[in-house]
Amino acid sequence: MDRSILDLPFYGPEHRQLSDAIFDWASNAMPEIDHHDTDNACRKLVAALGKAGFLRYAVPAAYGGALDELDSRSLCIARETLAYHDGLADFAFAMQGLGTGAITLSGSEALKQHVLPKVASGEWISAFALTEPDAGSDVGAMACEARLEGDHYVLNGEKTWISNGGIADVYCVFARTGEAPGTRGISAFVVYPDMPGFEVAERMEVIAPHPLARLRFTDMKVPVANRLGAAGEGFKVAMRTLDIFRSSVAAAALGFARRALDEGLSHAKARPMFGHTLADFQLTQARLGEMATDIEAAA
């Protein structure tokens, strides 16, 4: 894996050290997992990433993290390196940060103290529940509702395509609270799977296997204290969280691409053909050269 991009002044020595540490761990110490049993695989990976100290980059230092605040460069480095080795390892790391990003940014001190250290250690798995059957990119079309009744909200509705759904210990859920139409009337909440009214309605299968579920909430009581930020500010909370992690999605794709290039090079050098190797032919060299150029341009 070519990591010369880290020589640019945009990165510091701490970023190169992080890349080296994760690459060494992923090459030599990452646990063997069964990709056909993604629930247990993700649990093992989260525990191992926590034990190795890498999940500390998903939460602030005040709550067991490695840095004072979330650093997009570190998140990108971690995801690119993990994705190069195993897509599920990248997924396990990314969801620990995305699932609790809203708590980091807008949670009360009590919620931060209760949740974030457990996520940083790998004791808990987190999830981010925004998408609905009829509201994906159009968040303002959200139908899931949280009705205020005294010191709690009553949550009703569904979420779908929720990563870590069914295995998470804590969920950040977004629901309509009615302060205004569209995106201005949405609030964010922390919920736990043992709350009455929480249901995993369906486990979902996709081409790239990972824990995924449709969730249903039926008259589920959520304390007001579990709200993240002010009422009606949930859309802003969601967008601030996603903004931190958006670039890391591209970094993971870069890790996959670097692995594809390295696998292609290895195969081309080893594959005999007409008394030569596949790599000796001009067309092969051109294709691999184009791949390398595209990857470096993306980096």
Walk me through the structure.
- With 299 residues, the chain is α+β, with helices and mostly antiparallel strands.
- The chain has 2 domains: 4-125 and 240-257, Acyl-CoA dehydrogenase/oxidase, N-terminal domain (Butyryl-Coa Dehydrogenase, subunit A, domain 1); 127-239, Beta Barrel (Butyryl-CoA Dehydrogenase, subunit A, domain 2).
- The chain has 7 helices and 10 strands.
- It has helices spanning 13-28, 38-52, 72-85, 87-106, 109-121, 234-270, 282-298; strands at 126-129, 145-149, 152-163, 170-176, 186-191, 198-203, 212-223, 227-228, 272-273, 276-277.
- It has a 4-stranded mixed β-sheet. It has a 4-stranded antiparallel β-sheet with strand order 2-3-7-6, with no helix packed on it. The protein has a two-stranded antiparallel ribbon with strand order 9-10.
- Helix 2 (38-52) packs across helix 4 and helix 6 packs antiparallel against helix 7 (282-298).
- The protein is elongated.
- The model has no long low-confidence stretch (mean pLDDT 95).
